[in-house]
Amino acid sequence: MKPIISPSILSADFGHLADDIEMLNRSEADWVHIDIMDGVFVPNISFGFPVLKYVAKLARKPLDVHLMIVQPEKFIPEVKALGAHVMNVHYEACPHLHRVVQQIREAGMQPAVTINPATPVCMLKDIINDVYMVLLMSVNPGFGGQKFIEHSIEKVRELRELITLSGSDALIEVDGGVNLETGARLVAAGADVLVAGSAVFAAPDQEEAIRSLKRL
């Protein structure tokens, strides 16, 4: 089964954002990955909902919204208003994670949970049957273009084993340093969804870059 490809517009050309979104619409990309950063949970600020309303208006692919923020539950109505397919929150940012996952599902979106590189997979044991997807960060969140953390391959294998043993049907998504080389190894280890930023938007032929990732 071919991986789901979710290019991250964090690496897009914000001066020509409409052109980049139109490229994604034409391409073999499956989703549009949106990284929302608050400068508190992560050391950077990306974009807010006025910009994202514009993105949602132009995008013809499902929105994969990743909130790298404190108290993400406060913004469930805003993410829902975008028409998001997935609302993804960090394990580390949600002390009442089951409640937040339930609220996301009740809002009509697919709930997903992200863990940072230093958070072990075993912490997901009590939530794995309640989520649509788990996102493994393969870099420390906050900036694009970082080097892939090698231990992420083993974490994908561990998560695949947890999903199998628990009877969950959660998807495994990976974000950070994903390119053709790391992407191939991640898919072989059990990843279902690849988030790619620089590997797509810095490529000479962006649509071909997406096509190549899709064929892994």
Quote the CATH topology: TIM Barrel
Radius of gyration: 16 Å
User: What is the CATH architecture descriptor?
Assistant: Alpha-Beta Barrel
Number of strands: 8
Major β-sheet profile: 8 strands, parallel
CATH class: Alpha Beta
Roughly how many Å apart are the termini? Answer: 9 Å
Number of helices: 8
The low-confidence runs, each spanning 5 or more residues with pLDDT under 50, are none
- Written as H for each helix and E for each strand, in order along the chain, the element string is EHEHEHEHEEHEHEHH
Could you state the CATH homologous superfamily? Aldolase class I
How much helix is in the residues?
Answer: 25-40%
Structural class: alpha/beta
Short description:
By secondary structure, the chain is α/β, with parallel strands linked by helices. It contains eight helices and eight strands, in the order E-H-E-H-E-H-E-H-E-E-H-E-H-E-H-H.
